[in-house]
C-alpha cells in the first residue's frame, strides 16, 4: 500500500465486504484455528454489562473454545484518553479481570494482560506515529465520535492518536484477527494502513512481513440498546452489569421503557424499545425474538419484562456465581494478571527486536 491518504469512512459496500470476510474467517477457523491469533479487550472504565456480554464477550469465549490463540487486553492506558484522572483504576482493572474469567475466559488458554505493564508494546507507538498523518487521524470517524462525546473538551494527543495506539495493541503480538463492531472498522483499517506502510518502508530486508494484515470478525449482535431505548452506556445507568444480583436486575428491567400497545410484536423499526427487550430475552435464551413475542401476545409490557428478567437471570446465574467466587480470591487474580503480563512482555520484546532490526536501530 502506498502512502496515499486512506479513506476510513464506513460505507455500505465496505460493511458488506466486512460481513463476507467474517463469514469466510468463521469457516477457516472451523477448518484450522491455528492459522489465527486474536487480540481484543476493553477499557477498565466501569463494570461490564450485558451489552458487552451479548455484543462481544460471549463471542470471545467461543473463539477461545474453538482453539484460536487469544490475547485479551485490559486497556488501562486508554482510560486517560478523554479524562483528567484514572479514578479507582486498580479496583476496575481487577473487576474487569474478574468479569473476563467469570464468563469463561481461561488463563491457561488465553493471555490476559494490562496495557501499562507492557512498555515494549507502548514503544511501538513511536515508529507507528511516523506512518500516519495528522489529517488521517482527525478524520477517523471513531476519533470524531469520541471527541463529540466529551463536549467542548479539547482533544488530547492521546485521543488523537488512539487509533495508532490500538494498532500497537493488535500488532505487537502479531494478531491477524480482531472481533469488532461495525463502528470499529475504521480503527482496524488504520491498523492495516500502519502494517502496510511499515512493510513498504522498512520490511523489505526480511523474507516475510514484520506485521500481518489483521481482519475483522464482526459481532453477531450489533444493536443492543439500553433499558431506556437509547444506546447502552455505563454513564447513562441504562445497563445491567454482569455482577448485579438477580433482584437488582429485576428492579432495573421493571423500569425499562416499553410503549402503550399491549400486544407485543417484534418490530425494531417501529417499536425499538419493545423489540430490544425481546432481543435481550432471545439472546439470553437462545430463541427467536418473534417466537417470544408471539407467546406473550396481549400480555403487555409487564409480561414482557417478566420474561426478560427470567431469561437474563437464568442465563447469568452461573456467571454471577463464578464471579463471586473469583472476587474473594485476590491472590489468584493477581497471579493470573502477573502471568499474562509476563507472557505479553516476552512477545512484545521479540516484536520490538524485529522492529529495531527493520529500522536499523541495532547497536
Jot down its keywords:
15 helices; 363 residues; disordered N terminus; three-stranded parallel beta sheet; mainly alpha; two-stranded parallel sheet
Structure description:
The protein has helices at 12-31, 50-65, 89-103, 119-123, 125-129, 134-138, 141-149, 157-160, 162-171, 185-202, 246-254, 272-285, 289-296, 300-327, 330-359, and strands spanning 37-42, 69-74, 110-114, 177-180, 215-218. The chain is mainly α and 363 residues long. A three-stranded parallel sheet has the order 1-2-3. A two-stranded parallel sheet has the order 4-5. β2, α3 and β3 (110-114) form a beta-alpha-beta unit. α3 (89-103) packs across α14 and α11 packs antiparallel against α14 (300-327). The model is unreliable at 1-9 (pLDDT under 50).
Write the SSE topology.
Elements: H1 12-31, E1 37-42, H2 50-65, E2 69-74, H3 89-103, E3 110-114, H4 119-123, H5 125-129, H6 134-138, H7 141-149, H8 157-160, H9 162-171, E4 177-180, H10 185-202, E5 215-218, H11 246-254, H12 272-285, H13 289-296, H14 300-327, H15 330-359
Spans of 5+ residues with little confidence (pLDDT < 50)?
1-9
Radius of gyration: 21 Å
Largest sheet: 3 strands, parallel
Widest sheet: strand order?
1-2-3
Give the fraction of residues assigned to helices: 40-55%
Structural class: mainly alpha
- Overall shape: it is globular
The mean pLDDT is 89
- Listing every helix as H and every strand as E from the N terminus to the C terminus, the arrangement reads HEHEHEHHHHHHEHEHHHHH
N- to C-terminal distance: 30 Å
Task: Give the quaternary arrangement of the chains.
Answer: single chain
- What is the overall number of helices? 15
Provide the β-strand percentage band.
Answer: 5-15%
Number of strands: 5
